[in-house]
Amino acid sequence: MNEEFIGALKELVKEKGISEELIFTTIEDALVAAYKKNYANINTSAQNVRVSMHRETGEIHVYAQKVVCDEVYDDVTEISLEEAKEISPKYDVDDIVEIEVTPKNFGRVAAQLAKQVVTQRIKEAERNIIYNEYKEKEFDIITGTILRKDKGMVFVNLGKLEGVIGPNEQIPNEEYKFNEKLKLYIVEVKNGSKGAQIHVSRTHPGLVKRLFELEVPEIYNGVVEIKSISREAGFRSKIAVYSNDESVDPMGACVGPKGARVQNIVNELKNEKIDIIKWSKSPEEFISNALSPAKVLSVEVDEDNKSAKVVVDDNQLSLAIGKEGQNVRLAAKLTNWKIDIKSKSQAEALKESEEATVTE
User: Fold this and answer.
1) Distance from C-alpha of 84 to C-alpha of 81, rounded to nearest angstrom
2) Which CATH number is 185's domain given?
3) pLDDT in tens, 301-326
4) Are 34 and 113 in contact (CB under 8 A)?
5) Subunit structure of this entry (predicted)?
6) Does some domain include residue 299?
7) Are residues 99 and 39 in the same domain?
């Protein structure tokens, strides 16, 4: 091993941001294993050795380690106190004596092995650096470029790595065209045998949240708070917002001047409808708001069962329920309450029926 190699190694360590001591220790451990494998038959003391590599010159020395004993039972691992004193008067019983046993041609074996270990360690370190970089972005938004589709999976270029949009993370009927740029939500970053694996999503409610944080400064600054989101990707989302400053209208801030802010998000989500709802501490008011755009006449809540009975005008019933029950379903997810909707005439008929039963 020469100084030129050590210099190149240190430069590489600096460039890749890897611990220099870790590299040297790893090489020394690998050289111990190599020595035991290649010299066990030649040198019986090969089973108990230490390898040292000089951090500046790259010189390698192999030392057999023996325990100082009053009486020697095993020549391979033990040395008598008399013999130890001959090497150095400082040795005493139970001390470890190191005797150099470096083979003449060991430098060549070491050089080859060191290069392999360094290459492997650098690859591992690079993988860890990339993994940590993307792990910090978990549950955040990232821009990806579509690469290809294969067996229902969509592969995207995320910069240093490829990400995967699984079938359940794809917006229904959304076309993924080669080289198209998309905003994606990082659902999970795993460290696999081949490095970091990143799962991204177009359907996660977190994508809507992060898009609003990007578009609305008041949300990013914490003036306006997103309290909850419910989403049926590709069709409709509801987002409940609240302002910590009475002078700031949370809904107006999210909509933006002439609807520009929310329109940018709608465009990114390929025309998915977005209802912005004002959050309220009062369950009755929150549930009423959540059923927007329908107008609610009354809300009766059951706190114990977290259920609510809602009454709307007859002409508002289908709007409140929504196409295939979507509006009420999203409202229930948004508020985390069970919602039972009836029209005014249905509610009156039910009340009359109950009163008649009581009278009977």
Assistant:
1) 5
2) 2.40.50.140
3) 999 999 999 999 999 999 999 999 99
4) yes
5) Monomer. Binds directly to the core enzyme of the DNA-dependent RNA polymerase and to nascent RNA.
6) yes
7) yes
